[in-house]
Design a protein that fits this description.
The structure holds two protein chains of two kinds. Chain A is an alpha/beta fold. Helices cover 36% and strands 26% of the residues of chain A. Chain A has nine helices and nine strands. In chain A, strand 1 and strand 2 form a beta hairpin. The model of chain A has no long low-confidence stretch (mean pLDDT 87). Chain B is built from nine helices and no strands. The model of chain B has no long low-confidence stretch (mean pLDDT 88). Classes of the chains: A alpha/beta, B mainly alpha. The interface between A and B is medium-sized, with 26 and 23 residues.
Amino acid sequence: MELVKCNNLCKEFDQKQILKNINLSISKGKIIGLLGKNGTGKTTLIKLINDLLTPTSGEILINGEKPGIHSKQIISYLPERTYLDKDMKVSQVLRFFEEFYTNFRKEKAIKLLKDLDLKIDAKINKMSKGMQEKLQLILVMSRDAELYILDEPLGGVDPATRDYILDTILSNFKEGASVVISTHLISDIERILDEVIFIDQGEIVLTSPADELRQKENASIDEIFRRCFKC
Amino acid sequence: MLRKLLKYDLKWCYKPLLVFYILAIFFSIITRIIESFEQTLMVLIIDKICSGIVIAMLISILINCFMRVWVRVIRNIYKDESYLTHTLPVSKNTIYLSKILTAMITLLTSFAVIIGCIAIVFLNEISWDGLKQYLEQSAIFFNSSVFSLILVLIITVFFEFLFLIISGIVGIILGYRSNHLKTVKSIISGFGIYMILSTFSVAVLYLAGFLNPDIMDAFQNIEISSNAMKSIMFAGIVVYAVYNVILYWIGNHLLSKGVNVD
C-alpha cells in the first residue's frame, strides 16, 4: 500500500484553480523531491496532505485513510514558516512535543540542539528566524515518523548551512520512512533524491526515479528542471 | 489529549489574566486599607484613585477574558501556530472543545475574582447587613431561598457571557472560511449572531407572554410581579443554555468540515 495517494485532487481559491487533478503516489522508503518554481502549488499540495487545507474535490489517502489523527501521528511536517509559540522556551517546546507525539525522541532532540549550538533554556522570541527554523527542523527530525514532509527546508538558509541541514535530514530520518522535500533550490538537494516530482501551474508534469531521469536525459536534475521550465 | 490541549490553552489565556487578577486584588486591599484611615482630603483623593484603578482592573479582566479566548482561537486555528495545532494527533473537535472549556473556566475564575474584589472594597458590617437584608427580601419576593436566588443570578450572567464568547468564536470560524477580509467578516458574523439571537430571544419571550400573562407583564408594566421575574430568569437560563449548545454544535460542525489556514 502507498504511504500517500492523491486521486484527482483539486484545490481552488476564488474560482482560481491552484491544483488541477493531482494523481500522485508516494511509496515507503524513498526521498522524493517535490520540485517546481515559486507559486506552482507545492505548498498547497503539502498543506492538503497535512490537513491544513480542505480539497475542493478529489481525495487524499494516507496509509489508506483520510487525513486525521492517524495520519498526523505518522507524518512529521516542517512548514515554510515558524509556527512555535514565541513565548515558550526551547525546553517547553520539547516537553510539548513529547506530550503530544508518542514517537518524539527527546534525547535525540537535545543532542541535535547541542550539535547546532542551540541553548535549551533559550526563549523562542529571543532567537533569530534562522535559529527558529533550525529548532523546527530538529523537532521534526526527532520524531520516528513514517513520512517527513519538509517544505522549503533550505529557504532562508545560507549555502554553508544548507549542507549541514541536508546531512541532518539524511542522518536522522527513521529507517524505512519516506521524505518529501519541496524546494526550488534543486542543485542543493539533487544528490540525495531517489525520486523527483515536477510540478508546474498546479499540475504534475513529471514523476520519475532520479537516476533513471538523469540517465535518460544525460543531464543533472537541475539542468532538466531548467530546461523543462525554461529558466 | 483534551487535558493536554486544555493545559496549554489555559496557560496561554491566564498569563496576562493572572497579572490583572493580582493587580485587582492588590488595589482592592489597598483601597480597603485606605478606607479604614481617618477621612482627610488627601486620603479621600487616594481612595478615589485606588477605587478607580480597581474598577479599571475589573473591566480589564472581563475584556481580557473575552479577547484572550478569541485571539487564541484565531492564532491556534488559523494563523502561524495553526501549522502546529492542526498537525497534532488530535481531532478538530477536541481542539474546538478545548477552546470552549478554556472560555468557561477563565470566565468562572474571572467572575470569582471580580466578586471577590468587589467584596474586599465594599463589604463591611453595614453594607453586609444591607446586602443580606436586600437578598432576603428578594428571596421572599421570588419565593425562593437566598442561595437559589444567588445561584440563578450567577448561572444567568454566566450563560449570557458565555453566549457572547461562543458567538465570537463561531463568528471567527465563519469569517475565516472566506479568503478575504477575514477579520472584518469574523467581527460582523460574531456581532450578527449575538444581536440576531438576542433579538430572537426577546421575540420568543414576547410570544411566550401570550401563553403566560406573568411574562406579558414585563412588556406592559414598569413594575412586574415576582412570578413574571422568576419566569423571565428561568426562560433566560434555558434560552442561553440552548443557544450555547446550538452555537457549540455549529462551530464544531463547521470546523470538522476542514479548515483553510493562511
